[in-house]
Design a protein that fits this description.
This protein is α/β, with parallel strands linked by helices. It is 42% helix and 14% strand. An eight-stranded mixed β-sheet has the order 3-2-1-4-5-6-7-8, sandwiched between helices. It is globular.
Length: 240
Amino acid sequence: MSEEVSVGARLQARIENREALVGVIGLGYVGLPLAVELARSGYRVLGFDISEGVVQGINRGFSHVQDVSGDVLAAFTSSGLVEATTDLKRLGDCDAITICVPTPLNKTKDPDLSYVIAASQAVLHGLKPGQMVILESTTYPGTTREVMLPVLEESGLVVGEDFFLCFSPERVDPGNPVWQTRNTPKVLGGVTPACRDLGLALYSRVFDTMVPVGSAEAAELTKVYENTFRMINIALANEL
């Protein structure tokens, strides 16, 4: 069996057996609900956040996010399925890592990717064969392949063979009692087909409906189209 097959097969097996440790970088309104749904699906979750207060609160079972019940969170933290930390060195312990950091606009209205780059660099320091990284942050087409991938390739590992990289845009509607994290259709594309297949292996166990697409760029573009559709309809409604 080749090394490419062996690392992918090992990760696939850990995902299927619920043995994978999943890291979530950014425990805000996207990351914390995702962490809870991963735990609800039987995965151990290690959440990362730069705020010591947020981390301490989560480990005490306190939810700072509207869509996550404190009682539910407390049940997962007390059982050991969810743990939060500020120690980014522990990223190396994870089998899969999701990145849920903000991508605000800067003064010139261009996307500020500094949080994505910082998260990628943190992952790089502990990147090992057989790990998968999934970016969820809203961004423009090309970010995963042209911004994240070069950072991770500094490890000397080969995407699609040694490690796996996907994009799956967050589609959270905070406060919506009907469409929540689990039942909102989830788009996912990989940098390679092997990346996509492993991403689907994990997320299909967490989300009710998966929508696989042919590339990371296609997945990135779906979020641009969705936000454009929403903006145009809001603008039209305001003009009527």
